Amino acid sequence: IKIMSNQKELEKHFERNEKMWKIWEQRGVNSETNLRVFFHFYATNKVDLNSLCQELEEDNIVYQKKEVRTFIFFKGWKVDAEITQKWSLPLLQGKMGRFFLMAQQTGVSLEGCGAIMPTKQ
Predict the structure, then answer these.
(1) What is the pLDDT of residue 50?
(2) Would the pLDDT of 25 be above 90?
(3) 3-class SS at 70?
(4) Alpha-carbon gap, residue 95 to 88, rounded angstroms
(5) 18 φ, ψ to 5°?
(6) Half-sphere exposure of residue 71: CA atoms within 13 angstroms, side-chain side
(7) Residue 1 pLDDT more than 50?
(8) Which of 8, 110, 114, 117 would you label with 82, given CA atoms 20 to 30 Å apart?
């Protein structure tokens, strides 16, 4: 049952990415555009956070982590992994699949991705 729910979750990421890619294309992004893409993770404990960060470091991926609190209660950490390169939808989906698997293996959740749109010349 866990594998099926994981598959459905991954499929939802893929569907969101397809919709997002279409919007990016409307804004002039194509496979020749150098684009800064952020993949968002959430960790609820330090061990899982450290595991994720170690994996990202081994892949030479730049990331930022931020402690998240609600009022005075500690809630966890947000981690944003940043990759700047030329993207295509298949490449984005492949990276999403890789990060989804990494999140599963390290005990964190993959929240999705987004990008900073390039300014038009």
Answers:
(1) 97
(2) yes
(3) strand
(4) 11
(5) -60, -45
(6) 1
(7) no
(8) 8
Q: How many CB atoms lie within 10 A of CB 25?
A: 13
Least confident of 21-25, 64-68, 73-77, 112-116: 73-77
Q: Which residues, other chains included, contact 66 with Cβ-Cβ below 8 Å and sequence gap of 6+?
A: 77, 78, 79, 80
Which tokens is 108 given?
């964190």
Q: How many CA atoms lie within 13 A of 59 on its CB side?
A: 15
At residue 120, does pLDDT exceed 80?
A: no
How far is it, in rounded angstroms, from Cα 47 to Cα 30? 38
Element (H, E) at 106: helix 89-106
Structure token pair of residue 79: 């981690």
Going through 1-121 in order, the beta strands assigned E by DSSP cover 34-43, 62-70, 73-86, 109-116
Give the integer Cα–Cα distance in Å for 36 and 60. Answer: 15
Average pLDDT, the chain: 91
Residue type, 106: T
Torsion 39-45-50-51 (CA) sign:
negative
pTM equals 0.90
